[in-house]
Design brief:
Number of domains: 5
Number of helices: 28
CATH architecture of the largest domain: 3-Layer(aba) Sandwich
Pfam family, one: WHD_HA2
Protein name: ATP-dependent helicase HrpB
EC number: 3.6.4.13
GO molecular function: hydrolase activity; RNA helicase activity
CATH superfamily of the largest domain: P-loop containing nucleotide triphosphate hydrolases
Helix content: 25-40%
CATH topology of the largest domain: Rossmann fold
Distance between the termini: 122 Å
Structural class: alpha/beta
Strand content: 15-25%
Number of strands: 30
Shape: elongated
Strand order of the largest sheet: 4-3-5-2-6-7-1-8
Keywords: ATP-binding, Helicase, Hydrolase, Nucleotide-binding
CATH class of the largest domain: Alpha Beta
Amino acid sequence: MIDLPINSVLPQISLALDENTSAVLQAPPGAGKTTVVPIHLIQSGWLGDKKIIMLEPRRLAARAAAVRMAGMLGENVGESVGYRIRLESKISIHTKVEVVTEGILTRILQTDPELSDYGLVIFDEYHERSLQADLGLALCLEAQMALRDDLRILVMSATLDGDAVSKVMGGAPIITSEGRSFPVKNIYGPETHRKNISFDVADKVEEVLRSEKGSVLVFLPGVGEIKRVHDLLRSKTLPSNVEVRPLYGDLALAEQRSAISTSGAGMRKVVLATSIAETSLTIEGVRVIVDCGYMRSPRFDPSSGMTRLETLRVSRASAEQRAGRAGRLEPGVCYRMWPEVQNGALAMQNKPEVLEADLCSLVLELLNWGTTDPSELSWCDMPPASSWKQAVEILSSLGAIDTQGRITPHGKAMSRLPVHPRLAHMLIMAKEQGEGWLGCLLAALLNERDVLQKSSAKAPIDLRLRLEGVVGKGADKGLRFDRQRIKQIKRIAEQYAKQINIKVGGRVDLTMAGAFASLAYPDRIGQLRKNSTGRFKLSSGKGAEIDPLDSLASEPYLVMTNVGGNGASVRVYQALALSELDVRSLHAERIASEDQVRIDEVKGIFLGERVERFAELILSAKRQKHPDQKSIVKEILRVIRNKGLSFLEPSEKAVQLCQRVATARCYGEVDDWPDFNEHWLLDNLDVWLTPYLKNVSSFKDLKNLDLYTLLSSLLGWDKLQLLNKEFPERFTVPTGNSPRINYNDPELPVLEVRLQELFGLSETPSILRGKVPLRLHLLSPARRPLQVTNDLAGFWQNTYHDVKKDMKGRYPRHYWPDDPLVAEPTSKTKKNMVRKR
C-alpha cells in the first residue's frame, strides 16, 4: 500500500464504523482519504454483499478518484470501482465502490429510499457544503433513522467544524488525520483588482516561470479568466519546455487528463484552474501556486427570484487549501496576489450553498420525498425561510405544487428529470406540444455555457441565433460558434430526449423557442415599455434593460433567459422573442380581467379601465365611462398607502386628534387607547376609511371627507369624551382666550401663549387633572419667543423682572407690572386696557 498520512487512522475508521452507524473524518488535502478509505472499507464485515457509494462535488473529481482507486487495485475502471456522472457511467455487476456526483444520490434515494443495494454512503469534501450534499445527508440521515438502522454514513472533509456535523449526525465519533505535507512559503504582493485579474496573473506566471522550478497551478475565478490568461500567455515568450493547460468542469475529457497527468521528461506545466483544483484532485509535479484571491459563486436573491454569479474574495480556508497544493511532494511556494494585511478581512469559511442558493430543486425533491417542512430533517444549516417561500411560489407557478402545498403528478414527473424544475416543466410541456426535441435542445442550451465564441464585437443576446447554430442554420449569420460546445449541447439534448422518451433529432420549429422558454421563466416575460427601446417591464414587476442597438431591443415581448445585476432593473444577457399570442395561449390560466382605476390628479377625476393582466404586465386596457366603485375604492387606498395620509390633506384639528391620542397612550389611566400613528392608520385603512368611500366618485368628494370626524367615530363616544376632558384641544388662560395645545411630542405637550395673558396665574397650566404640566412657550406681544419653562411660579419669581426690563423698552405701550401675580391679565395695550375699564 502507498504510504499516505491517512493510513495511520484506518484502524480508527474501521472501529468507529464497526461500533457506530455514522462517523466524521477530518483529513487535510493530500492525506489520501478520497482513494484509500473506500478501498479499505470494502472488506468490512458489516458491508456484507452491499456496495459503497461515495459522493464527490464535481464530475472531474469523481472520475479521477475512480480511475485512481481502480489503478491502486490493478483493475480497469468499471470493475471493483466505477463511477456515475452526468452523461457518463462506468459500472458493472462486480462494482463494489461507486463514485457519483451528488445529484445522482438524490435520484437513487427517490427511487429506493432504503438504499437497499448500499451499506455505506461516503460524503467526500463535505466542507464545500454544496446544496446537493446537504440535501443528500439530510435524506440519508432520515433513511437511516426510519428505514435502515444498519446503513453507515461517513462524512469526510478537509476543513470542517467536525463537532457541528457530529451533532447533526447524533453524536457521531470524529476521527482526525493530521496529514503530512511539506512546508509552503507564502509570498504576498500588491492587491489585484477584479478588472485586472487576467493581465496581472499572466504577468505573474511569466515572472514565476523565470524564478521558480517545477510546474505551476494557477487559481482563477472562472472559465472566462482562464481563456484570457491562456491567450495572454501564448502571446508571451515562455520557456520552450512549458506547456499551458486549462482545467475546468466542462473541458473535454482528454484535455482534463492532460492537465492533471504527469508532464513528460524535462517538461513543465502551467495549469490554469478554477476552484475545482482546491481539493480531491492531485495534479502531478506542482510545487508553485499562483492564487489571484478570487472565486466565482452563485448568489440567489429571493426578492427577485434571480440568481447571479458574483466574483468574490476567497475565504481563509480556501486560500489555505490552495496554498497546500504546492506542498504535496516537496517544499513549495504560493504567490498570493494580495497584501498580507488583507488576510484578516477574509471570511473564515465559504458560506454554505443552502444559505445563498435558489432552493427550487431542493424544495421539489423534499416534496417528492414527502416532506413539506424542512425543520423535520437534520441540517447543519436550515434552509432560509425567504428562499424556501420564493421556491414554493415558483414551483406553484410551474404547476408542481397544488393549493394545499402538496406535490402534483406534474411535479412528480418534473422531479424525475435531472434538470432544474424550470427546465423540467418546459421539457414536459414541449413534449405535450409535439416539439419535444426543440425543448431538449433549448434546455441543453439554457443549462450550458454560451456556444458563441467571444469576439471583439458585442455578442447579440438572441438565443435563437444559438439554436440556429446548434441545428446547423447559423453559418450565414457571421457568428463564430464553439463547435466542441455544440457537440456537448447535442449530447446533453439526446440524454434529455431519452429521459422524456422522445425521438432524437428531426425538424424543429424555432419560432416556438420563445414560447417554450416562457414556460420555464414565466416570471421573466418582459414587455417593452411605452415610447422606449431596450427597456422592458418583467412579469415579476422588476425592470430589465438591453442594448438599444441589439436586434431584440424593439420586440414587444421577450423572455429573459439569462439576466444579471441587482436593483430595480436587471441586465439581460440572453433572451428570446415571443408574441402576445404565445403569452395568451400558454399562460391563459394566469391571465385575469379586472376593472382598474387610475387617478388623474391634474383633472381631479378617476379614470376607469377594463384590463387584461398577466402577473404584473397589462396585455390590454379599455376605457370605461363609469368606473366600478369597488375599483375606485381600491385605487384610492393604493394611492394613500403609497403617498401617505398627506394625500387626504388632513385638517390641523385631525392631526392634533392623532397627537392627543398618542399623549393619552403615554399618560392615560386607561390602557386601551388605539394607536393613531400614521403607520397604523395606513395599515388599517379598510377599518376606518373604506366605509366612508362608498359614495366617493371624484377628487372633490375625497377632499371633502372630514378626517377628524372619521377618526373620532373610531374612538367611540366614551373615549372621545374622556379625551376631550383629560387631553383637551385648547387651554383657557386668564384672559379667557383658548390657545391650542401642541401635542406634537406626545410626552411633552406644549402651550404657546403671550406672557401678559398669564398675569395673576401662579400655577403652571396642566392637563389630566394637574398630573401633566404643559411646557410653556412664553411669547412677546408680537408673538416672538421669550422664554420656555415648566415652572411658571419660578419664572415670575426669578426671571420675569429681567424680561420686564427688556420688554418695557421694546413694547412701551404694553402693560408690564412690577408684581405679575396680582396684575390683570391682558392681550391688549395699556391704552386699550383703560378704554375697557
